[in-house]
Every structure is written in C-alpha cells, then in structure tokens.
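Following up on my earlier thread - several people asked me to post the actual chain instead of describing it. Fair enough. Here it is, all 402 residues.
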Amino acid sequence: MNKRTDRVRRRAQRSRAVAVGKNLRDSRCRAPFKRWQWPRSEFDLNRFTYHSEKRIRHRSKQTQKFRIRPRATSKMMSRKLIDESREGYLENENSPFLISNYGYGKDSVKVMHVVRSGLVHTIKEFEVGTKLKLRSQKDYLEGDNSDIVATDSQKNTVYLLARKHGLKSPEEFGILLCHHFLSKYSHVEEVSIHIEEYPWSRMGFGTGPYKDLHNHAFVFTPTAIRYTDVTQKRTEIKPTVISGLTDLRVLKTTQSAFVNFVNDEYRSLPDQHDRIFSTVVRSSWQYSTVTGVDFDYCWNKVKQCILNNFAGETEKGIFSPSVQNTLYLAEKQVLETIPEISSIDMTMPNKHYFTFDFSKFPKVVNEVELKEETVYVPVDKPAGIIYAQLDRKSDQYVKSKL
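Reply from S.P.:
Thanks for posting it. Predicted structure:
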C-alpha cells in the first residue's frame, strides 16, 4: 500500500515539474505549458494563452504553417449565376478555375451639401456606396495593384464631385459618378453606385397649410427612406437607373377585410370582415428613360400613389379586400401616371394586430359599455409577405435609355 502511494506521489510530482520547473527562484520564471497540458488556475490560464500565442507567432514567422488564411473557396460577395461569369483565365495559365464575380469599392460615404443663398438655405445629405469592376484580375491572381483605384480615392471623388456639381437628386449624382469613373479610368469595366438620401424637411411654425417655413432650420422626418442604384458597363452607352423607397409604415383601422380563402384541415384563421391593415412598404422601379426626368417628382408621385390606394379619400377611405389587391392597384397607378417608369415591384409584409380576448375577465371589463373601444396585441412575427412586379408589356425587358 505504501509503495503504491509513493509511486502515485512521485508521478504527480513529475507532472507538476513539467509545468513549474525545478529549482526556479520565482514563479514568473516557470516553464511554459506543454501543448497537451491543461491550465489549473486563472494565472495558469493567462500564461497558457500567452505562451500559446507566442509559439504560434514564432512558428508563423519561420514556417508559415500556423497562419490563419481565408480559404480559396470562401465567398466574400453575393453569388452570381454561372452564365453571368466573365472570362477569368490568364494567358499561359492552365488553371481549371476562373473568378466569375468580383469587384471592390467604398461603402457608407456620408456627404452633406449646403447652399446658403441669402437668408434661405437648402441642404441635401446622401450616403453613397461605390463599386468598381476592373478589366483585369491581376490584383487577385498575381497581387499586382497597379490598376487599383483605391477605395480612399473613390471616397475623395464623392466629395470633390459634390463640391463641383452640387447634390440635386440621388439619381443624377449616381449617373454623374458612373460617367466620371468610366471616363477617367479606361481599365474600369463596370461601375455600380448605391445612394440613400437622408430625409430632412424644412422646419415649420404656425398652424394650417400656410404655416411659415424656417429659412435655415430642418427636422429629420423618416417617413420613408429614398434610395437609388445606378449601374453602367463600358459596353453600354446608357446607365441602368433603379430607384426605390423602404420603411414606409402605414396603418388603417377599418375598410380592410380578408374572407373566402381556402378552407381545409390546416386552416385556423376565421374570416375577417373588418380588420386593422398595417404594413411596411418596400418598392423599387426602373426608368426606361432619364432624359428630362424630374426624379424628385417621380419619387414623391410613387409614394403618393401607394398612400392613395392604401388609404383613399380622407372621409370614407377605400376598401381593401386583400393586401394583394391594394398592392396591384398602387403599382398600376404608378405605371399609368409616370410614363418614364417601365417596371415596378413592391413588397407588403403584414403587421398583425390581434384583438385581445376580454371574455375571460367579465368582472373587470364590460364589453357592452366599451363596444366602441378595444385593445389589440401587436404581432409582427411571424408575418405574411405579399409581393408582385408589374411591367409594361411593350418594354418589359428594356433597360433605361437616355
């Protein structure tokens, strides 16, 4: 028994000696942990982390074996279909692979333009994203940066063109940026510009429709976010301009129903003859021409068409038998009133408001006395999603032309 105890004790001492070291004066001079040894305390854990990182740094300098590198198959951008890929082979290279989608740029470049013409000042604030696609791929395949227009240079271009030409509409500034990059750099094959406009409105005082507007004070009014995407390839003479709006949240308390839908063993929702209708509208549309187009007018007109078909006239409103029908009527009115738009798509997710069941609390709430009032429970998830795209039959696939 004593011999066995001595063997166990000696084995434990040898194990500790590996980590602590023999005949060392200070605990700070302890030997580093072995790769297989587990730390026993917070102090040991810190030493374990430090020596592990130190060992990895040393080996990465010597052999490059432990350096963490991105895998060649990882995707840093959104995928594209194979038939959209470019010819990616270099000369005299027998590689079985090609780069089918690539590009680089600068995101979230915030710029504000202020015009102080006398007492009345005007402002425009954009958030701009630029993306370039070069003719060659030697920056990827060979590490040759000689063709790269630095993203910092792209950022500077946004500010310089804003100072030189001003900011009018997101669409016009996007077209200007595309033209600049394609004309300035002959090796740029494609330019994509994304712009969001910050919704500043002039501050007003007084009451009624004739209230005074402030000369130089503004208020942030995010009723809806305006954006545009402008894309142009060197092989194309004209750019593709797509504009849109997001986060337009609307609600009406009546004049909405949902009845006579499929009734089978999976259905639990009853017919709703009068319900709250609420949604957050997202819409985008493509211009078939940009010559002489008032983009500010078009954007406001699309927004007004959506609101008109959702709410109707102020006193009685407009009846909505389904979200689908309201969405279609709004898109139809847009194409009827704005001939420069060739296609429009729209998404309307349901934002549900379910009636709270007060029948379980008869001693607290009298439904007869409060029949004109009720309480709803807002439920946004899960939510139905309704979408559609409406095109003109004559130019369904026509891209924007100047």
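The first helix runs from residue 2 to 20. That should answer part of your original question.
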